[in-house]
Design a protein that fits this description.
By secondary structure, the protein is mostly helical. It has one domain. It is built from five helices and no strands. The longest helix is centred in the C-terminal third of the chain and has 24 residues.
């Protein structure tokens, strides 16, 4: 189970880092999605920082700071629950990527707690 935790968490860290970078460079598809759900583009640095903090926290969890890793995984799960909620609020059905991130973060959290 420990190897599964390491793999799932490492993949999660990579995806979160990539997603944070896309936020920081203001990738057009992200801007389009934010417009579709009515979220201000001025929040991009904040959202990118939250994703980067989640990635760093989960990385610390891999290196033995378990409470930080668990707290980060919980934060990432909540982040993507809220992201999906933002899509559902405006009846936007284009939240597949957020759902995939949520599933991955939930798996990392479950394996961490197991």
């Amino acid at each position: 189970m420990h190897i599964a935790y390491i793999i799932v968490t490492a993949v999660n860290i990579a995806y979160l880092t990539f997603s944070a970078v896309l936020d920081f460079v203001r990738f057009q598809k992200i801007l389009d999605n934010m417009s579709a759900v009515g979220v201000s583009h001025s929040l991009l640095p904040t959202l990118g920082t939250a994703k980067a903090a989640g990635a760093v926290g989960m990385l610390l969890g891999l290196f033995g700071v378990r409470l930080i890793g668990t707290a980060a995984a919980i934060g990432v799960v909540l982040f993507f629950v809220l992201a999906i909620g933002a899509h559902l609020r405006v009846r936007d059905k284009d939240f597949g990527l957020a759902a995939a991130f949520l599933a991955l973060a939930t798996a990392a959290l479950a394996l961490d707690l197991a």
